[in-house]
């Protein structure tokens, strides 16, 4: 019976992966943010009665299953992948806005939402501040995947990533204190406040310590191996080990993972990883996070449909308003005295403070007998749905309208010239291909082709003049050309190995050399 249950769970999981992969593929094909598409389709599947999918919906929307999949299974991987690829130098350059948002902004948002929920939503003290903790953090799963798909300037992207990686760890700590210890601390008065502050410091500090030690230890371990499959396994053990070990010591697992991955991705990659290893680890986690993100957002869509909002529209509207106002105070207030953050960036940071799967997973982890649990569920689910759909769909037009994703000078002109040159090349190829079938004489075809060639020559001259004016554009084209050449070389070596012309040892050596050159080009670009 046990084996049969595992077999059935595997079947349901495979169906979920197939649905998520299909929706993600379609969204990417049409260049739309796939997280939003998954949430919407998930909600539709949840609302519509599809007999074949009913067992899947019942399984996924079990609170314990959802909580385990999001927090224990996917969160360490998603946080680890994001922190692994975040250069410490970029974090250091932007530490002021990141710290201001992740700590100052989160605390400010927590207090505003907590007291507003107490007075305007009529929630009890623990329920009000639990809701405040859930809504104070920008969910890294939501933020990183959506912002990667819309494209923003590198520095703004670093601030967004840095905030989302650290402030959710803070919010989880605030959630645990609010849900399980707040009343006892309040009853103890000033002494209780001291206990609360100590608990907060202890949880954060232990998370930093555990993550730091494990990150350093695994980084040193990579010096003794040059074997990327093994080093990928090290990264898996590190991310999940840091999370679970920190949680077992009642520390912040989220902060432990982020710190461990930052050290491993910066210090570890510097002292113990070849460029080929770095590229392969990066590619592995790209696949894992795409799969995890796709499943997470589909599950969020399915889960959201399980709540009944019919009689709570007034409370829901008020809650959304409170969360939006608190986020505005958090962003503009915490960044008030920082002069190097443009106002347009603050608007993006404000509206891009999305809530997502982490909030839902945390609220589902509340004990069944927690006072106000149902009200918090309804409010949290509603805010998350509003955040992902309304804010998620409007963030890309807002970024474009504010000019935050504007390309560097000359790039639009370069794109237009390349497009026209490609048109003429295609036109010449098509004429040469069909002239025999259509019995076109050489005289006619040559006159048309000559005109196209003249236009093409003029365009090439214009492109060369543009390269002279903007050397960075030429460098980008050179890098793109070299990368395509190296990929072809990599494939050619693989073909020689397949035909048994060269040994696997020689093939591996050559492919590693090619991979190292590709990594160098990517770092240069």
State the main characteristics.
about 525 residues
Calculate the terminal CA-CA distance, rounded to whole Å.
56 Å
Strand tally, please? 0
CA radius of gyration is: 27 Å
Largest sheet: none
The average pLDDT score comes to: 85
Low-confidence stretches: none
Strand content bin: under 5%
Number of helices: 22
The helical percent reads over 70%
> H/E order of the elements?
HHHHHHHHHHHHHHHHHHHHHH
Please characterize this protein's 3D structure.
By secondary structure, this protein is mostly helical. InterPro entries: Cation/H_exchanger_CPA1, Cation/H_exchanger_CPA1_bac, Cation/H_exchanger_TM. It is a multi-pass membrane protein.
Summarize the structure.
With 525 residues, the protein is mostly helical. The chain has helices at 2-29, 34-47, 54-60, 63-84, 88-93, 95-120, 125-136, 140-150, 154-180, 182-187, 190-221, 228-248, 253-272, 275-304, 313-334, 343-351, 357-364, 373-402, 411-434, 442-469, 471-498, 504-524. The longest helix has 32 residues, at 190-221.
SSE layout and pairing:
Blueprint: H1 2-29, H2 34-47, H3 54-60, H4 63-84, H5 88-93, H6 95-120, H7 125-136, H8 140-150, H9 154-180, H10 182-187, H11 190-221, H12 228-248, H13 253-272, H14 275-304, H15 313-334, H16 343-351, H17 357-364, H18 373-402, H19 411-434, H20 442-469, H21 471-498, H22 504-524
Helix pairs in contact: 1-2, 1-14, 2-14, 2-18, 4-12, 4-13, 4-14, 4-17, 6-7, 6-9, 6-15, 7-9, 7-17, 7-18, 8-9, 8-18, 9-11, 9-13, 11-12, 11-13, 12-13, 12-14, 14-22, 15-16, 15-18, 17-18, 19-20, 20-21, 21-22
């Amino acid at each position: 019976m046990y084996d049969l249950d595992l077999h059935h769970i595997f079947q349901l999981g495979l169906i979920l992966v197939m649905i998520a992969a299909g929706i993600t593929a379609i969204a990417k094909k049409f260049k739309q943010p796939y997280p939003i598409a998954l949430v919407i389709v998930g909600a539709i599947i949840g609302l519509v009665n599809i007999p074949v999918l009913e067992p899947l919906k019942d399984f996924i929307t079990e609170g314990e299953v959802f909580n385990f999949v999001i927090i224990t299974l996917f969160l360490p991987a998603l946080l680890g992948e994001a922190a692994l690829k975040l250069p410490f130098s970029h974090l250091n350059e932007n530490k002021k806005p990141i710290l201001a948002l992740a700590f100052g902004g989160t605390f400010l948002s927590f207090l505003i939402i907590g007291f507003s929920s107490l007075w305007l939503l009529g929630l009890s003290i623990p329920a009000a501040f639990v809701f405040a903790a859930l809504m104070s953090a920008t969910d890294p799963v939501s933020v990183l995947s959506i912002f990667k798909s819309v494209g923003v300037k590198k520095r703004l992207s670093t601030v967004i990533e840095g905030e989302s990686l650290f402030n959710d760890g803070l919010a989880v700590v605030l959630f645990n204190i609010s849900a399980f210890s707040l009343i006892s601390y309040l009853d103890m008065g000033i002494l209780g406040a001291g206990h609360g502050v100590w608990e907060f410091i202890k949880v954060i500090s232990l998370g930093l310590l555990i993550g730091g030690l494990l990150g350093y230890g695994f980084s040193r371990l990579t010096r003794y191996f040059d074997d990327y499959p093994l080093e990928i396994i090290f990264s898996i053990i590190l991310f999940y080990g840091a999370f679970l070990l920190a949680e077992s010591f009642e520390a912040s697992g989220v902060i432990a993972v982020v710190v461990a991955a930052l050290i491993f991705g910066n210090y570890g990659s510097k002292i113990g990883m070849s460029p080929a290893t770095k590229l392969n680890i990066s590619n592995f986690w790209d696949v894992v996070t795409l799969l995890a993100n796709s499943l997470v957002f589909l599950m969020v869509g399915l889960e959201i449909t399980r709540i009944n909002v019919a009689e709570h529209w007034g409370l829901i509207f008020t809650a959304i308003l409170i969360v939006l106002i608190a986020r505005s105070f958090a962003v503009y207030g915490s960044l008030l005295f920082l002069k190097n953050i443009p106002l347009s960036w603050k608007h993006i940071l404000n509206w891009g403070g999305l809530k997502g799967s982490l909030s839902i997973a945390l609220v589902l982890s509340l004990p069944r007998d927690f006072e106000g649990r149902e009200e918090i569920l309804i409010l949290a689910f509603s805010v998350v749905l509003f955040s992902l759909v309304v804010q998620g769909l409007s963030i890309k037009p807002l970024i474009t309208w504010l000019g935050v994703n504007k390309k560097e000078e000359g790039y639009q002109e370069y794109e237009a010239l390349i497009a026209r040159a490609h048109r003429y090349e295609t036109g010449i190829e098509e004429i040469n291909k069909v002239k025999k079938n259509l019995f076109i004489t050489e005289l006619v075809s040559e006159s048309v082709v000559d005109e196209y060639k003249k236009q093409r020559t003029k365009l090439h001259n214009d492109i060369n003049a543009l390269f002279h004016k903007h050397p960075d554009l030429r460098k980008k084209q050179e890098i793109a050309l070299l990368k395509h050449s190296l990929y072809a070389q990599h494939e050619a070596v693989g073909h020689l190995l397949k035909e048994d012309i060269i040994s696997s040892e020689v093939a591996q050596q050559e492919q590693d050399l090619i991979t190292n050159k590709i990594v160098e080009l990517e770092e240069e670009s």
